[in-house]
Amino acid sequence: MTSLIRRFRTLALVMIAPLALAACGVNAIPTKEEKAKAQWAEVQNQYQRRADLIPNLVATVKGYAAQESTVLIGVSQARASAMQVRSDAGITTDPAAFQRYAAAQNSLSLALAPMRVLQEQYPDLKSNENFMALQAQLEGTENRIAISRRDYNEAVRDYNTTLRTFPQIIWAKTMYSSSQPMQLFQATATAQSAPTVDFSPTTPSAAPPAGAAPGSPPPK
Question: Of the candidates 120, 119, 139, which has an alpha carbon nearest to the alpha carbon of residue 129?
């Protein structure tokens, strides 16, 4: 009988221990860390979607506004720089790498700003269905980027808070000592205000010839 009771107690302990650990939040850290990583993957997806749209957008604009070479080259160079920056999930716990990634993406956003109002300077672009479709896709992607960044920040704040609060801090210092706080996206000063866009010609040769229709392609 004594042996049977001892076995029953051992079995009860084995069954109760996982429940007790769960109640103490032992699974909270890995669960919230994986959620934050999943949100980071969504940020990556949306930035990649934007990068994929840019070559076609630049090619379309070039056919109508080739004289805006500074804008087109700036966008292409900013895209190339953004594509070269490390973007795997490991950078979320590396402040320097994360800031390089965020800075590259912000630079691309600024380079794209003039593209959003080109149709005002070149009305012919408004009649180009491909350009308008690409513009709509780009605007939609920018909105999804903003949403994905917001969701990522919320998931990271929750995860980082878990690492610092009781009782999860016990597991953070023991079982999950390799789990580190993740970086947050910060709004830059340039992102707080509308960019200044100037399409005025820089040289006399950039101006259309007399009598040319507004928005017509430059003479060859």
Answer: 119
